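Listing S7. Sequence submitted for prediction.
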Amino acid sequence: MQGNHWGPRTNFTVTPDASARTSYRVAMLFDPPADLSPARLCRDDPLTLPSVTDTDTTTLFAAFCRERRSLTEIKGSVPRPSGPEDPVFGDLIAEITNGLFPPDRRYDHDHGGCRLWLNCD
């Protein structure tokens, strides 16, 4: 995940120290059931959630959570990699990370030249 996101420098870790902002976290589940909601991914311990193994692909469902709510979520699939060192696996993690933390493109909210916070009569 390191270096594959937009925004401030972030140290993604599974062993947070005292400097971690504990109200924020990334939850990930490999091969989730199709009906799994982002809210449940953030609310429940991913280690207790069910997985559905498909022999042809690996699917990763991830959410950027604040407390127990999803701020962003994304799901992606790749042909089943041979293991964590397989470049396909690394590409999946990189793309999922990039999608969880989209750039702040303030002009995406532009409506005919008028930004939402302006009064453009």
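Caption to Listing S7: primary sequence and predicted structure tokens for the chain studied. The mean pLDDT is 77. Helices lie at 38-43, 87-100.
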